Amino acid sequence: MSGTKLTWKDDLVAALLAGLVMVVLVATVGNLGYARDEGFYFHAADSYRRWFELLFENPRAAFEPKAIDNAWRVNSEHPGLIKSLFALSNLFLQKKWHLFAMEGTSYRFPGIFLAGAGVALVYRWGTEARGRIAGLFAAIALFCMPNFFYHAHLACFDVPVVTMFLLATYCFWKAMREGGSRWPIAAGLAFGLALDTKHNAWFLPILAVTYVALCLVRDRLTGGDMKETGRRALAALGAMAVLGPLVMYALWPWIWRDTFARLAAYASFHLNHEYYNMEFLGRTYWTPPMPRLYAPLMTAATVPTVTLALFALGLVVRSRARIQAFLRARAGKIARREGGETDLLWLMAIGISYGAWLLPKTPIFGGTKHWMQAYPFLALFAGAGVSWLVSVLRVELRKLKAGSVRKFAHGPAAAMALLPVLLAAPIAETAASHPWGLSNYVPLVGGAKGAATLGLNRTFWGYTTGAVVDYLNREVPRGGTVYIHDTAWPSWDMLQKDGRLRKDIRGVGTVHEAEFALYHHEQHMQGQEYQAWVAYGTVQPAHVAGLQGTPVIWIYRRKGR
């Protein structure tokens, strides 16, 4: 199960995969409501856009400390890179070039682009390390994880940091594998981009240093070239230590002044993050201790079971191969190969991504998005499992007497026959999940209905308002009022800017002043529903919407309206 030297054909396949991902996401973005966090980032992006406009018109004025602080103070608890891309996309792609039918899509497009780039990079890395079959399956399997697919649409940081984390890890792998100066520099630059994307990047130095230490131990035990490993490690880690912070500093104007104080405030915000509510197995958690089983169980409940099974197979196959190679090298029967240990790096990337969420004090309010940077590596191991299955299939086909069947053992026929079978369920699950991504659960737990019975969270972020706009447009009288519940105000406003929701419909902040009341079901929000019962004199929703027959959002209507 060896890798493949990349050629222009692989570049073409990667580009086609990226393009296909972007086309699918843009085509499906129109009926997906805006998540609460997106609303906050719309507001921040607008502030940054005005600064960029000033920068293009009057650079001297834009670099005044007051101008920088006024613009970049907004949402300064998160780095600036991705929100800058939201701002520039809105400025150029929408306001100047009018490329999208809905303004909200212009904010979402940078995340969509980075989703495509991430899928393409998975193909390239999988192909380079484990062959084209592994790379192709891994890329498609990542895209066909319903939670990844949902987040890939959003003007948020979660899929962008998946791609940046993957890119930095890939560049580090190349630096350790090939040496030289090009890849260490690339690793440093990629680390800087990751730092300026989201705080998940803080795990990267831990990953890199621990990996290097284990590689040195391996070299000592197997007679490897510790000096060369150390030289490559120093180059890669040194570039990351120097270039990473410089890139972050250069791309985040907020920290150009009072740098250390503002960085300390940023770090403190996340290290001491407040706790929000999240339901898990019928109980709402909002203070520690948090359930240690949350991350592994939610992964099993939301990632297609076929993909997880192939991940397990790939992990077993690669572990067996690595143990055998280690023992042979230890016995002196084979020479130690130079370069990084791919399997070890992938496994460590998964482990470090999940590690924090196995601790009782780590907040769980964001669901699977918190450890989603592990998913490309999970998919890569799954691709290795598929590659092994194809090799087994080819061996069995060669044993058959029928020549017409035996010929399929050669060339791509066996892989092309097996891949659609293995991808059918993930593709079907992902397609059926839209636009209810966070409500989707795999058949292993009984789908959305089974998850509701188990007491797993049905939804959060208030984005499912987008699924009921047709009802509101049809039923709310002109100038009527709607209690927007968990929908962020900027997200509500964007639905109206897009033309998806009538502009005369007025959102309000309390049940009693509204003629219609939205209710996004979360266990800790049931008090909002009880208020609607009292205010409207009914316990019967006027409209219910959800996934697979499971109610997710419903609407109460004041009697006589």
Characterise the protein shown here.
It is a single chain. With 561 residues, this protein is mostly helical. It has two domains: 8-378, no CATH class; 463-557. Helices cover 61% and strands 5% of the residues. It contains 23 helices and seven strands. The strands form two sheets. Strands 4-3-5-7-6 form a five-stranded mixed β-sheet. A two-stranded antiparallel ribbon has the order 1-2. Strand 3 (481-483), helix 22 (489-497) and strand 4 form a beta-alpha-beta unit. Helix 6 runs antiparallel to helix 7. Residues 98-214 form the Glycosyltransferase RgtA/B/C/D-like domain.
How many DSSP helices? 23
Instruction: Estimate percent helicity.
Output: 55-70%
For the CA atoms, what is the radius of gyration? 25 Å
Q: Would you identify the regions where 5 or more consecutive residues have pLDDT less than 50?
A: none
Number of domains: 2
**Distance between termini?**
66 Å
Strand order of the largest sheet: 4-3-5-7-6
Tell me the strand percentage band.
5-15%
Order of helices and strands: HHHHHHHHHHHHHEEHHHHHHHHEHEEHEE
Q: Tell the overall outline.
A: globular
The protein's oligomeric status is: single chain
For the largest beta-sheet, the strand count, sense and barrel status come to: 5 strands, mixed
Average pLDDT, rounded to a whole number, is 94
Number of strands: 7
Structural class: mainly alpha
